[in-house]
Amino acid sequence: MSKANGAAMPAVQTGGQQDQAIADPPAPAPGQFGKAPAAQAAQAQQPAPLTGIDYVISKVKRGDFLCAGAVTINVSDAADNPREFVIKSKSFEFRMVPVVTASGAVRLENEAKGVIWLQVANRAMLMNQKKGQRMAAECLAKT
């Protein structure tokens, strides 16, 4: 028997277990306490994070890069295709497409010519894989 307000109340038995009422509602989920419904709706409407090629495209640094040997390289969006880039200097121009890498580095390549552009943090380089040589190294974005 249990007592409520000083009066004895019988406990209800169901299938060998005692039923008990839950006095308090469950606690709110972490991060949800005190948020207004408008804030919750805005949080729910945020776009999904970019993945794959779209992520690579978003991370490509555009503009001029100053490389070792006083080589200047320009990286820009291709005028006719927003998913391609043009990398050019005084002596060359390559049309490049983004490639997903396991390391997270930005990689653009022109498979037909064997040329790749790699960007890692604040550095970049242009390589010719067919010839096994660097075309431009230690490239830093101009500020």
What does this structure look like?
Helix content is 11%, strand content 45%. The protein is mainly beta and 143 residues long. It has a domain at 68-141. Strands 5-6-7-8-9-10-11-12 form an eight-stranded antiparallel β-barrel. The protein has a two-stranded antiparallel sheet with strand order 1-2. It starts with a strand and ends with a strand. The mean pLDDT is 82. Residues 1-47 are annotated as: Disordered. Residues 16-47 have a biased composition (Low complexity).
Provide the succession of SSEs.
EEEEHHEEEEEEEE
Instruction: Determine the mean pLDDT.
Output: 82
Helix content: 10-25%
What structural class should be given to the helix and strand makeup? mainly beta
Please tell me how large the radius of gyration is: 31 Å
* Ends distance: 79 Å
State which percent range the strand residues make up.
Answer: 35-45%
The total count of helices amounts to 2
Biased composition (Low complexity): 16-47
Region (Disordered): 1-47
Sum up the structure in keywords:
143 residues; mainly beta; eight-stranded antiparallel β-barrel; 2 helices
Short description:
This protein is mainly beta and 143 residues long. It contains two helices and twelve strands; from the N terminus they run ββββααββββββββ. The chain has a domain at 68-141.
